[in-house]
Amino acid sequence: MTGETYDIFQAIADPTRRKMIRLLAGQELPVTVISKHFPISRTAVSKHLRILSESKLVNVKKVGRERRYQLQPEALSEVKEWISYFEPFWDNKISKLQHYVEKEESSEIDPPGSEGDPGEEKGGFPDLTPPD
């Protein structure tokens, strides 16, 4: 063991660990069951689980001879708080996008023939019937 500790952001940085977090949401599982969901060795799964445990994202409980892992979702509150700081930026961008789309929709020109232009039918196709 290197003595290195991991914070929540390091723990969620890895896609495999993010998948493990989802897998453990709402259920307690032993490493043998968790390992079946990943194309990596059980040793690698255990290392990921250790990092999740050190970052307080999962709780480890010994039941008989096996260790069971369970998500501790309250640990994600630090991530939520950090992300919430940036929500006004996203909201502003979304608001600008909505305004742009609404402006584009209101300024669209009706297709030719949609208002009964002479010599054309609806849909912009010319009237090819011979005159009387």
From TrEMBL:
InterPro entries registered for this protein in UniProt: ArsR-like_HTH, HTH_ArsR_DNA-bd_dom, WH-like_DNA-bd_sf, WH_DNA-bd_sf
Pfam families: HTH_5 (PF01022)
Residues of the HTH arsR-type domain: 1-91
DNA-binding as UniProt keyword: yes
Domain of life of the organism encoding this protein: Bacteria
UniProt-recorded Gene Ontology molecular function terms: DNA binding; DNA-binding transcription factor activity
Keywords annotated in UniProt: DNA-binding
Region (Disordered) residue spans: 101-132
Endpoints of the signal sequence: none
Keyword DNA-binding (UniProt): yes
Protein name per its UniProtKB record: Transcriptional regulator
Annotated organism of origin: Paludifilum halophilum
